[in-house]
Design brief:
Blueprint: H1 2-24, E1 28-33, E2 36-45, E3 48-52, H2 53-59, E4 63-69, E5 72-79, E6 82-87, E7 92-95, E8 98-101, E9 103-104, E10 107-108, E11 110-113, E12 116-120, H3 121-127, E13 130-135, E14 140-145, E15 152-161, E16 165-175, H4 180-213, E17 223-235, E18 238-248, E19 255-264, E20 269-270, H5 273-276, H6 283-300, E21 321-323, E22 327-332, E23 345-350, H7 351-354, H8 364-367, E24 370-371, E25 377-381, E26 385-392, E27 398-404, E28 410-419, E29 429-437, E30 441-451, E31 464-472
Length: 473
């Protein structure tokens, strides 16, 4: 029986390989990180990019391993406590304890081709702090590192089953955020959303039990609640979380409600679109036009059908949206404008398109961080991100330590260390810090490079760097 199972799994994977190879037409593109080719090509299927998993992960400093246990092929990548595993056989991702499907809008997110794992670029960007952009003219793919917020995300889960209800719930909780009040506000919102899904499932199950007790033979006997999430943006002091609430109460299929929150981590506030975009601009009309054109394009291609009696006209006063790494994504619920089979349709409006419509406090979404200069007075506006990059070598025992003279003016948003890429032990790399400007004022950031056991007093003038930042509203 075990041999038969293994054969079936092998055939299933082989079918996926053959389907992908035929669809992709063997089109390849070189992958570059910091303008250096990785020596491994990505595969291109139309506009969808599939990255070579091992080569990309190793270039980013991850250790990659392969397992084929109990008939399931799994590839894993680990770096500094960050562990991502992909079940290639069953198409599941375990991202630091968070389990979700390896599926993307265009179809399957992971393929095995000639014994090598390829992962769709958007799925890769969800699981790893990096992105990929494909330039069709040059035929090249550029990888870019992403510096995520200085916060930990803990996966909380509830799994249970009784006679009438199967419950699978996962939701995120933040830890290690400097502002504990802001952290608590975010966690309360996310936990309450998960609890509301559980309560709805319990009510559905109670109704099912009563229906069966009352003799309704058509009652199926088992309800289901499946609640999950995706973190779609985690940079520059902003966090976007998409929640998916699936409820099955009988019948041909269940229903899914998608909600989302975008948080300012300096306050814990859930932001509306009107907080991000400048009301003095006609941003709603522009977004309406972009979405209308994309709907028409999908309909014309035969990929979508729209209800004739209630077609899309505008996003309304308080639209559903979330932040992605590439832009603001708007979405519509099942049956809102399209049939159930269309699922939840999403429409991305790039940050570059919205650049002149963003409020000044959120212009960083399109402009990115400002590189700080220790030899000059640096000017930031409230909401801007100032970036510091310093070289170092942790294998020597030396580390950079920093102090901000006024934490009400500047807040640490993220910090990370990137190896140089030289495979030699002790080759060093770059430390990167992002600081968010909070309000008007002047603050100094002082960095000192020393060994912890030797103390701050051991830092010489040559190992001390000071950045002066003036923030305006």
């Amino acid at each position: 029986m075990k041999k038969l199972t293994a054969v079936i799994l092998t055939l299933a994977m082989l079918a996926g390989i053959l389907c992908f190879s035929a669809a992709a037409g063997n089109k390849k593109a070189p992958v570059l990180l910091d303008d250096q080719a990785l020596g491994a090509d990505a595969l291109i299927d139309g506009q969808t990019v599939y990255l070579p998993f091992r080569a990309v992960c190793e270039a980013l400093g991850y250790t990659v391993s392969w397992s084929d246990k109990d008939g399931a092929a799994t590839v894993s990548a680990a770096r500094d406590g960050d562990v991502v595993s992909i079940d290639v056989t069953n198409l599941k991702v375990t991202d630091n304890g968070h389990l979700y499907n390896a599926a993307v809008f265009s179809g399957q997110g992971v393929y095995l081709v000639s014994g090598r794992t390829f992962i769709e670029s958007g799925l890769f960007s969800t699981a790893f702090p990096a992105g990929a952009s494909y330039d069709a003219k040059s035929g090249r793919i550029a990888l870019s590192r992403r510096y995520e917020n200085n916060v930990s995300v803990v996966n909380e889960s509830v799994v249970s089953q009784d006679d009438y209800l199967k419950t699978t719930v996962q939701y995120p909780q933040l830890s290690d955020l400097a502002d504990t009040a802001a952290q608590g506000a975010v966690n309360d919102i996310l936990k309450q959303a998960a609890q509301s899904a559980q309560i709805e499932g319990q009510k559905n199950a109670a109704d099912m039990a009563q229906a069966i007790k009352d003799g309704f033979r058509s009652a199926v006997g088992m309800c289901e609640t499946y609640f999950n999430y995706m973190i779609t943006y985690n940079q520059s002091g902003l966090l976007s979380v998409v929640l998916s609430d699936y409820q099955y109460t009988g019948g041909a299929h269940g229903s899914t409600i998608q909600t989302s929150y975008t948080f300012d981590l300096s306050t814990g506030q859930a932001l509306k679109l009107s907080d991000l975009l400048d009301g003095r601009t006609d941003y709603t009309a522009y977004i309406d036009t972009v979405i209308r054109k994309e709907i028409d394009k999908r309909v014309a291609a035969g990929d979508l059908s729209e209800f004739d009696l209630a077609p899309f006209k505008d996003i309304g006063a308080d639209p559903a949206f979330y932040l992605a790494n590439s832009g603001v994504v708007f979405y519509f619920q099942q049956y809102e404008y399209f049939p159930y089979a269309a699922g939840i349709q999403e429409f991305n409006v790039s940050y570059s398109e919205l650049n002149q419509m963003l409020n000044s406090a959120f212009r960083l979404l399109s402009d990115g961080p400002v590189t700080l200069d220790p030899k000059a007075e640096n000017a930031l506006s409230a909401g801007d991100i100032g970036r510091v990059t310093l070289g170092g070598n942790p294998t020597t025992g030396y580390t950079w330590h920093y102090a901000v003279s006024d934490s009400a003016v500047l807040m640490l948003a993220s910090e990370s260390y990137q190896p140089s890429g030289d495979p030699g032990v002790g080759s060093g790399g770059a430390y990167v810090w992002d600081f968010k400007a909070l309000k008007a004022g002047t603050a100094a950031i002082t960095f000192k490079y020393y060994r912890d056991w030797e103390g701050e007093a051991s830092a010489t003038a040559a190992n001390t760097v000071v950045y002066t930042v003036n923030v305006t509203e």
